[in-house]
Amino acid sequence: MARPEDTTTARSPHVTVVKLPHRWFILCASRELGTKPLARTLQGTPLVLFRDARGRPAALLDRCPHRNVPLSLGRVRDGELECGYHGWRFDTGGACRAVPGLVGEPGAKSRCAQVFATREQDGFVWAYSTAGAEPTHEPFRFPLLDARGYTTVRREVRAPGTLHATLENTLDVPHTAFLHGGLFRTEKARGEIEVAVRRTSERVEAEYIGEPAPPGLAGKLLAPGGGVVQHFDRFLMPSIAQVEYRLGDKSHLIVTSAMTPVSDFDTRVYAVVTFRLPLPGWLVRPFLTPVALHIFRQDARVLERQAQTLRHFGSEAYASTELDVLGPAILRLLQQAERGRPAQQEPGSAAETMVETRVKMRV
Fold first, then answer.
1. pLDDT digits (tens, 9 = 90+) for 322-363
2. pTM for the whole thing?
3. Distance between CA atoms of 231 and 254, rounded to whole angstroms?
4. Minimal CB count within 10 Å: which of 2, 85, 220, 314?
């Protein structure tokens, strides 16, 4: 690969803003990357995606080493990325393969573009966040995409908040009775449950034990016949938020959100909803998307105002309780990774050391 170089932006004054090296993030859906270059931004760093002659994706720093023009303004020619200014051409490894008019070899090291490792799987193109580095692990795999009897719905949205705030919001139970009242829970009907919180070096999970079936629209849609509720909320490094519900024997729902920090207060959310319900998937799908988008718009308004407050005061001030079962743990894992702790074993492997604590809450 071409020369490694630190291209991350300056450290933010906000403690909950993190820049994560040596991690995989989704840059686009596979269908978005066709025959033209595609510009994307990862943690404040501009990247350009393109496909080689065999259709394999590649990611380079979106800056031509010649005169600093964005390479995304160019075109793909014979599987190589051609700068739109002087026609310099780069292969998927960042090497300069052609300099129009040059007598001699074009491939001097100083003419190389910075390259970021890529993978294409599960319908997404992923990029490794450190330029020129060989990945130490593989990207996250979405569960049950091809499982018999399951239906999958995908959606991409933009969240106007930090990576940490967006992750915490997605996995936060207490706010749902207030911000999303009537959809999941209500302020009045509250019963005591136990929450088992399990932490490893790469993930934190909350299991809600004894939770009643959702009383609102969600309950009618997901489990019209009732049944025992199994509810898990999970964070998996570096940016996966996963909500899983099993309601009775027939209903199973997993919402997996892979998040990509575009900049300090801008996060792309790639949501993959996979479900098996008593009702046919084709019947549920038209109702699921509008409800999910309504919930997201409510959350997005809060995230935007939170970001405005952080900018106004220039720093954060958090007062947490034991009800904040995942947010503080997520931040600790993100900050450890930012300081350079490499990815450990694959989440869920037998080698992981797990620590469990339990708390009570009313929902």
1. 888 999 999 999 999 999 877 765 555 555 688 999 988 877
2. 0.89
3. 10
4. 314
